[in-house]
Design goal:
globular; disordered N terminus; mainly alpha; about 45% helix; 5 helices; about 110 residues
């Protein structure tokens, strides 16, 4: 999956101004709850499940290489793995939009 430079969407623009964060499911939660380790990370990820800005949050974390915490429903380890597997992606907003539209492999 490669999204080349110059490909933009509205999500990428929103990630820059961060106004989307005020609409997150976590807006009223203690931010420290998202900076935990081990099994606690997987428990806090459930908050992200129905979040209306989950993708924008994940895009922000991936494009800014945020090293710690749960962002957009992914732990830092999961984000690092995604970044390693797709080092050529420069527009995570477009890449994630494409991934959600593409049929699963083997179907």
């Amino acid at each position: 999956m490669t999204i080349l430079a110059g490909t933009t969407t509205g999500i990428a623009a929103d990630a820059e101004d961060r106004s989307w964060a005020a609409r997150g499911a976590c807006v009223s939660m203690d931010p420290d709850e998202f900076f935990v380790q081990g099994a606690e990370q997987h428990a806090v990820k459930t908050t992200c499940g129905g979040c209306p800005v989950r993708t924008r949050c994940l895009v922000d974390a991936l494009e800014n290489r945020i090293d710690f915490g749960v962002w957009g429903g992914m732990t830092e380890r999961e984000r690092r793995r995604l970044l390693r597997r797709h080092p050529d992606v420069v527009d995570w907003s477009a890449a994630l939009a494409f991934a959600t539209r593409a049929p699963a492999r083997g179907q």
